[in-house]
């Protein structure tokens, strides 16, 4: 249900438009005195997680979902790898969703009636939320979000789905995640966790309020295939410890335990004692450990953790009788103390607060002081986050509300490379964050824009404060046009900004042949080093790189500090995608899109389009096509095919569009590329379809 402005729902009542600063103060005082009008009542939450390895439901889920003696009040059931097909990956649609949903419904505890509150899914990651029918009326402010953390941080084969809701007076957030695979990739799993926490933001009913993050809730429940493995032990030793039920020794080598002990991830979270054998990896349909050629080391991949007060775990176990997948399902039964409002106590507390504010309202005006008013960001780089903090101190006698407001004739309160978090609130520390991405880098590289902005902090019923934000941006090949890179003779960071600005202006006057004459000895060959990655690398363009390695690669290209690129093949591959994605005008320029769409069924006309491309674009296109052909020649090693490469081009504005089909037609993939082309046309933005 939607929240109603009734006495017991104070946050919604006080957020109504007719309430102003006075009632924000009442809200703060009510939150401060919450213990005076609420009491704790325990409710049971059943949490379950199951990686089904793309299988259909073949057996009853009752041994897992109905394993408790009494029916729980809540069910929160998460699945991973619901569907491994390419169709599910491309279109986020799968017939297996209703099949597993029905299997869950049939497997719920038979001694209670349950209502489905919410279903949320991202590719193969699905979360189902059921509640006893009698509790449904007390659930409000329901929101759901998803985030992909695959290649380039966008694809949904890995990531998380999450829901948040209010039950009585407690805010609860539930996350189901599937993190990066492979034993050695624990740092990538750590990064996935941090990205999920940062990027999942829930809209509030009051749209003037900032979105809520995961950690802003009273209770956080986290489940899923976290993919943390057993380290530093041979597979036979691990199996021997399992046979002896020496789980304590085995747990000391668990990657998640080690990362939590070092406070790298899941800070403030709790996990119950693990007294069951690892849930991965089994031969499908049996209880036998993996007998495949890879012979995976058993691991506790499937986990359930929680964060908050008044939470007690009643059981934490795996369910060995289910054999559909190469994982075993895991469940946890939690008893959670929920804050319930006492109506009489609430009314009495509310009236006391209102009387107190009435006495002081006319005697006080809001006032704040700022820790600093001028900020300089040194050496800002492409896709490298920098942050500084300004503290807002309330030096008046009443709580106050601030908000950053747009300057005259400007649509937003700040430039697109700058963010203030939070942008509104009371006395807090505000993070001023600078982040240059594909949309802001071109104008900064060319000198058309500088890192300069003035923020206007407006105090409700008070005066405005001005905060100066400046900095210096280090130009990068990322976000520079191909024609500009062809004109450069030195590394981009070795050239004065004024010289770069002149070259950008001159690109409009140089003839195409003049630029092409400079191609062979130009700076363009620095970013083209990204094409030197090994074409034999397995899972290339499918396994994400590391953020730190990308930054080293970017610095190497911009400064020429190393002759060979640092980092893994996966990091270099991701850097190549980011370079292409950041081009102001793609390899196939926007102006050619209508022609490409018209001739997609005629390979000879496709080649004609290639022949009339600007020379530097045509040269780069030929390099890229040659690279793609090399990848396909070694597909037996790298496991790439045209479908995968085509899917990547869709995610980066279809860099090769239909011209790719002309150069790969000899491989018998023409029809596939026509399919990709038409799918691409459907995702182009309106201005791109009009030939931006």
From TrEMBL:
Keywords carried by this UniProt record: Cytoplasmic vesicle, Endosome, Hydrolase, Lipid metabolism, Membrane
GO biological process terms on file: phosphatidylinositol dephosphorylation; signal transduction
Protein name: phosphoinositide 5-phosphatase
A Pfam family matched in the record: RhoGAP
Subcellular location field: Cytoplasmic vesicle, Phagosome membrane; Early endosome membrane
Lineage of the organism: Eukaryota, Metazoa, Chordata, Craniata, Vertebrata
Recorded superkingdom: Eukaryota
Entry's Gene Ontology molecular function annotations: inositol-1,4,5-trisphosphate 5-phosphatase activity; phosphatidylinositol-4,5-bisphosphate 5-phosphatase activity
Catalytic activity, EC: 3.1.3.36
Location, primary (coarse class): membrane
Domain Rho-GAP: 495-684
UniProt family annotation: Belongs to the inositol 1,4,5-trisphosphate 5-phosphatase type II family.
InterPro entries attached to this UniProt entry: Endo/exonu/phosph_ase_sf, Ig-like_fold, IP5, IPPc, OCRL-1_2_ASH, OCRL1/INPP5B_INPP5c, Rho_GTPase_activation_prot, RhoGAP_dom
Source organism of the structure: Cyprinus carpio (Common carp)
Cellular component GO terms, alphabetical: cytosol; early endosome membrane; phagocytic vesicle membrane
